[in-house]
Specification:
Helix content is 80%, strand content 0%. It is mainly alpha-helical and 251 residues long. It is elongated, with a radius of gyration of 26 Å.
């Protein structure tokens, strides 16, 4: 097994394979959008359900509140994600225009910035000057180097629409799971809540496992950590609903 993995690694680092890989544009990853949307969706709806049960409300109230929050919060979260990425893109473009203007107005000053950037990386003498000349002869490379090295801006920017849709879809799909038991009329409120708790726990643990597999982290620890986060939020909501019911005498 290890030998096969090593062979695959060697094959991936063959000069032709590297050339083909570098020709492709970097792919943006939306796994973080899906994880964030899924966790927030499940926390939101299960917290609403827990609060409703803690307050002694009926199943119909839990359903109405749950689905209202599901769609409203899911839409809000998707729009917020879209606006955040869009703002980052606009910021990047503004910095790019500024660097292009600096190259036109004070090219020697920009060359000095390139020189000092690579000098701090350990280059000196003739090699350093060759690097400066090579980069400054290609305007696009010059600007991109300044964006990355001076401003710390990553080359790969997520698509705002794709990120928003991924967040919204994950929010709805995962967030709807704790609400399903309340749509089963043959169960009483206690049974619905227990089943909802089980569904939510499965969702939290599954998202944690998915995250661990993608980022090569311990599966059990990641699943339990996500489960603990969601469970804590739901517990706070339940306790809040119960206390308010007792304080205000909600029947």
């Amino acid at each position: 097994m290890k030998k096969t993995a090593n062979e695959d690694l060697v094959r991936e680092h063959h000069p032709e394979a590297i050339e083909q890989r570098l020709k492709q544009a970097p792919k943006s990853q939306n796994i973080s959008d899906a994880v964030l949307g899924g966790i927030d969706g499940c926390v939101t709806t299960f917290a609403v359900v827990s609060g409703a049960v803690g307050a002694g409300f009926s199943s119909s109230v839990a359903i109405v509140l749950g689905f209202a929050n599901l769609f409203a919060d899911g839409f809000s979260m998707a729009i917020s994600n879209y606006e955040s990425i869009k703002a980052q893109q606009e910021f990047t473009e503004d910095i790019r225009r500024s660097e292009e203007n600096h190259i036109d107005e004070i090219p020697e000053g920009e060359k000095e910035e390139i020189r000092q950037i690579f000098q701090r990386k350990g280059f000196n003498g003739k090699i350093l000057e060759e690097i400066v000349e090579t980069i400054s002869q290609d305007r696009h490379l010059w600007v991109e180097t300044m964006l990355t090295e001076e401003h710390g801006i990553q080359k790969t920017t997520p698509n705002p629409w794709k990120s928003a849709i991924t967040t919204f879809a994950a929010f709805l799909i995962v967030g709807a799971m704790p609400l399903i038991p309340f749509l089963i009329p043959v169960l009483d409120m206690q049974q619905q809540f227990v089943l909802s708790t089980c569904f939510a726990a499965i969702m939290f643990f599954s998202i944690g496992m998915l995250k661990s597999l993608v980022f090569a982290k311990p599966v059990l620890i990641s699943g339990l950590r996500t489960l603990l986060t969601g469970g804590t939020a739901a517990g706070i909501a339940f306790l809040t609903g119960y206390l308010l019911r007792e304080i205000f005498g909600i029947g």
